Amino acid sequence: MNQTRLKKYAKLAVYTGVHLAEGQTLIIQADIDTASFTRMIVEEAYEAGAREVLVYYRDPYLEKHNYHYQSNEVLSEVHDWQLERHLDYLRKGAATLSVISPRAGVLKDCDPQKMAIRQKAFSEASKEIREYTMASKIQWSIVAVPNEEWAKLVFPNKDEKEAIECLWDAILNCVYVEENNDPLEVWNQREELFQSRIEKLNQFNFKQLHFQNNLGTDLYVGLIKNHIWGGGSETAQNKIRFNANLPTEEVFTAPDFRNVNGIVYASRPLLYNGNLIKDFHMTFEAGKVIEYDAKEGKAVLKEMLEMDEGSASLGEVALVPYDSAISQSKLLFYTTLFDENASCHLALGNAYPSTVKDGLMKSEEELKALGFNISLIHVDFMFGSADMKVMGETQNGDWVSVFENGSFVI
Ligand code: ZN
Ligand code: ZN
Fold first, then answer.
1. Where are the beta strands (DSSP E) in 195-296?
2. Is 173's pLDDT higher than 90?
3. Number of Cβ atoms within 10 Å of the Cβ of 54
4. Separation of 380 CA from ligand 1 center, angstroms?
5. How far is CA 159 from CA 33, 137, 283, 326, in A?
6. Residue 95 contacts residue 13 (beta carbons within 8 Å)
7. Which domains does the chain have, with CATH numbers?
8. What Rg, from alpha-carbon coordinates, does the chain have?
9. Residue 275 has pLDDT above 90, yes or no
10. Rounded to whole angstroms, how far apart are CA atoms 116 and 177?
């Protein structure tokens, strides 16, 4: 890929993504395939005035061996130092950046139960770390880099080298990085569009949303009283504005976990812990999944739904117009970071405290009493389509059209 575009992308991650402050430390969690691009980010971060940049690499192939050879006892152990190496810096105000490069196939044949054991132990132990991002105590962001397996998944008819080039091009298009533009400026302009949508939705203050399409979705999603719509950039508790996801096209808020009813059909496959879940649907009653099925990956879906008390309820509802850049690319990325921006989506599991008025100041019990879902997981799945219709019910009981044919009409 063209080095100018790559350098711009690295810069976008540091400035628009985490918006690193001068003198701030940056922790980078990177998949091992991203090493050469991650080095570019490290350089950009130092150029931007980083105090220190730490990089922790993750290798899915090592994880595969762990699942294969380690006992359940070892898989459920999380050592203090593994958390402290992050927490020590986070407590002192470091920002974090994830550089992902998904490899769907590597963990595909691992025992879902063993993976669930590890996931649960790790999620429980890293609650404090997660709060730094879920509650935006510091700035955080995610960017993605191709690898040959991912590239072949997205572009099956191209040879490896060509597929990687095509995926790079698609990724950079999705984040508006062109050879001859200033992507930082483009992102500033898009911010205004997000703010106007959010303002309108907050003014409507809907009681619930009703989703319908030809796939069979017919779902009522109750919203928390005093919910807040978010999208585009957000402000961390340290007052710095940042973009948690590059790319991003969504506006989102908190459903009432006790008040979701109906049926939802996924419109795109979901990759969870390296496993594909395809052609699935879920039926909700009083906020909980009471029935579900999947043509592929049902066992993985089961493990996910049974993870804990909140994992079979919703923690996010997001509206994404079907004419977004990512949707228009017609590509299926098999990665939530991209696919969630092509389509309206829901998330099973934990909600974001920033989507409830004064949510960041409330305790877990107070939030729960409002209808805020609490869980160890937060897994987005896509259900939007070109014919998605969304109606919103106002506090007076009037129904307002929000989406027609997959896009905003407000
Ligand atoms: Zn979302
Ligand atoms: Zn989400």
1. 208-212, 218-223, 230-231, 234-235, 241-242, 251-253, 255-265, 270-272, 275-285, 288-296
2. yes
3. 16
4. 6
5. 18, 43, 41, 23
6. no
7. 3-174 (3.40.1830.10), 197-231+249-408 (no CATH)
8. 20
9. no
10. 37
User: How many A from CA of 143 to the centre of ligand 2?
Assistant: 15
Rounded to the nearest angstrom, the distance between the alpha carbon of 346 and the centre of ligand 1 is 7
Q: Counting ligands in written order, which one lies closest to the CA of residue 252?
A: 1
Q: pLDDT per residue over 39-59, tens digit each? A: 999 999 999 999 999 999 999
- Cα 220 to Cα 317: distance, rounded to the nearest angstrom: 11
Ligand having the closest approach to the CA of 339: 1
Q: State in Å: Cα 399 to ligand 2 middle.
A: 26
Q: Phi then psi for 408, rounded to 5 degrees?
A: -60, 140
Residue 244 CA, ligand 1 centroid: distance in Å? 10
- CA-to-CA distance for 370 and 276, rounded, in angstroms? 33
Residue of 98, 89, 80 lying closest to 41 (CA atoms): 98
Buried b (16+ CB within 10 A) or exposed e, 392-401: bbeeeeeeee
Give the predicted TM-score (pTM) of the model.
0.84
pLDDT average, residue stretch 223-248? 94
Please tell me the number of the ligand nearest to residue 347's CA: 2
Q: Tell which residue, 242, 405, 253, 270, has the closest CA to residue 338.
A: 270
